[in-house]
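Would you mind giving me a polypeptide sequence along with per-residue structure tokens?
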Amino acid sequence: MTKLDSKVLEIFPDESIYKSPNIYSCFTGFNLPSFIKDWLLKRYSNEHGKPDILKIKSFLIKHIPSKDYDIKTRCLNNETVKVLTRVVIEADIKSNIYRFSIPDLGITFSEGRVSMQLMREKDLLNSGENWGIATLEYVAPDDFTKEKGYIELNGFQSFKPYSPDLSYFCKARTSFSTEEWIDFLISCMEYNPNSEQFNSITRKLTFLTRLLVFVEPNLNMIELAPKGTGKSYVFNNLSKYGWHISGGKVTRAKLFADMHGRLGIIPNYEFVSMDEIKTISFGSDSAEIVGGLKSYLEDGTITVGKSKQTSNCGMILLGNVDLNLNGTPENKIYFKELPEVFHDTALLVRFHGFIEGWKLPVMQQDLIFSGYTLNVEYFSEILSMLRKEPQYVSIVESFLSIPKDSDTRDKKAIIRLATAYMRLLFPNAKCKEDISPVEFYNYCFYPAYEKRKIIKQQLAFMDPQYAKGSLMPDIRVKGYNE
């Protein structure tokens, strides 16, 4: 047991869990996100952290059926079926109903319908992916209306087994040095902070930058990286509050809302990640979606018809990039790796920062974490709760000396990114005195400034208009370099 393991176990005795590749082998054959796996491991572990593998497998077989589980036959036999599973909700505009699918059990949108009563229950279900206990019943064909039979989702208990004490978590930060806390957060992401590939604090901090959209409202990022750097894993496994799009067609109704006012992904989630961005298509909606994104990324508003909605959902674009022999992108204009619809500089300038994914470690065996860390469900709840804490932005602003002629978007982006780093790395901060100017500069301001600078440099390569104003504002940190 490492020194950090001991500290984690001592400070978070109920929230921590022992993880190793061998233990996770019991989930082979089940398509489960990390937060479900960790909940099961914690539920069926003894006081020494040793899991009861037989009980876990018994639970999996009983409550999380595999694809060959004949759920349709059970429904046809008028059984009421309850399963812990992933349910995907989608609005059917033409029919004025909501449909659902359970991909892992072979139930398609054409076979599943959500009861209207269930949809009317506020915050019970979101458009998109939902994890929880679903209650399913069969509705037979109606000879009078000629309506075909379908499986109805008429009950749903959202999966949320924890109500964490955020104040305890924030106070616990004071028991760790900053470097220990960084290693701790990396372990919470299920990566080994002691891997030889994490050979500098800068690399570790760049890796943690992926978590910024988890903790900061309305933060918009772009990451380009070679294959095998774990982009998809982080955004698809660590939180149920994010929606992961991996290629395919995206419509305005699916992303924002339909003309009936039914909300899409962005109003229902805390962040959306668009993975395999080169393969995502907006089809005939391209111009309308780009216009909608420009408005949304600027001020968080969604306008559909005469209705206007606001959301604090962040966005990150994820794409692959080809590297040269020096390990840097072959094309110096990084944004050319994005689909043409994202070559609009007026849209790109609204993204706050850029992650150079080629500077991150490639997934290898020594990156797999073994040891004590927070269980993912607890960790994801904490990240979600941190988004709602108001004090961090005022602390950031109190540190900065900003010239009056600074570009408004640059100022906004740097403050938002620095605030996100503070939420993540210094959650204990309640006022400016709780963090030194040196640590604020090194861990919050400087990485924020650099991430924004890349956006400005890339815009200058693409558009002469931005080349004229490509200089970053001369923002200083009070008490450090003012």
